[in-house]
């Protein structure tokens, strides 16, 4: 269950999930986007914030492992050979930091493109808020391992509460309630999997929530 929660609520999926909730489960006051443009926008956002970063991360990690192959046990008919061990988990901070750098660059490009081409302040605001928290996460990763899952999920909660505070929109009550529960589940899952220490999970929560909440208050 902990693995399932970590997979379904992967940080790179959260921008698409958040915008889908705002598009289809809130009023036009919160998400002023034409109905005919909602699905195309979601498709583009999914590709730019999930598909591109995942492909980039996979290429980077696989190339790293091919360059540093692991020894394979010698058999009676074979000489000692080396083969790369394919492992897409970012188990060291060097892999994490460069994957985060590439992902941050893609998110910056996505935000700028939506600002220039789509000219939709609502989507630009959400992407800018997420991108800012990702940039700070990347900077911190150069010095300390912090929970990206906690940053992402608490960031959604911060954005929803920011919109609720600014707009006073009652339709956000249930999304906020569900997001609060999911924050607890994600943090518990990361601790259960021993992926992070309690300090790293707590730091991720506070950074993601504060950055996104304040960003919405300032820019909305």
From TrEMBL:
Q: Which domain of life is it from?
A: Bacteria
Bilayer-crossing residues are 7-27, 39-62, 98-116, 122-144, 151-167, 173-193, 200-219
Tell me if Disulfide bond is a UniProt keyword of this record.
Answer: no
Record keyword Ubl conjugation present: no
Keywords (alphabetical) are: Membrane, Transmembrane, Transmembrane helix
Query: By what name is this protein known?
Result: Membrane protein, putative
Native source species: Microscilla marina ATCC 23134
Task: State the organism's lineage.
Answer: Bacteria, Pseudomonadati, Bacteroidota, Cytophagia, Cytophagales
């Amino acid at each position: 269950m902990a693995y399932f929660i970590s997979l379904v609520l992967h940080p790179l999926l959260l921008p698409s999930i958040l915008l889908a909730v705002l598009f289809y489960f809130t009023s036009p006051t919160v998400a002023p986007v034409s109905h005919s443009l909602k699905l195309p926008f979601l498709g583009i956002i999914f590709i730019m914030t999930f598909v591109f970063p995942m492909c980039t991360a996979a290429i980077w990690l696989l190339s790293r492992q091919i360059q540093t192959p692991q020894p394979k046990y010698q058999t009676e008919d074979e000489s000692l050979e080396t083969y790369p061990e394919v492992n897409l988990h970012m188990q060291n901070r060097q892999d994490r930091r460069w994957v985060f750098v590439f992902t941050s660059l893609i998110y910056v490009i996505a935000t700028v493109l939506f600002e220039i081409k789509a000219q939709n302040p609502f989507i630009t605001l959400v992407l800018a808020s997420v991108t800012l928290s990702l940039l700070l996460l990347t900077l911190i990763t150069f010095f300390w391992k912090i929970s990206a899952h906690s940053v992402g999920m608490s960031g959604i909660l911060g954005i929803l509460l920011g919109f609720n505070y600014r707009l006073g929109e009652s339709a956000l009550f249930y999304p906020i309630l569900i997001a609060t529960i999911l924050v607890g589940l994600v943090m518990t899952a990361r601790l259960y999997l021993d992926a992070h220490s309690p300090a790293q999970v707590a730091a991720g929560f506070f950074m993601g929530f504060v950055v996104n909440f304040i960003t919405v208050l300032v820019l909305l």
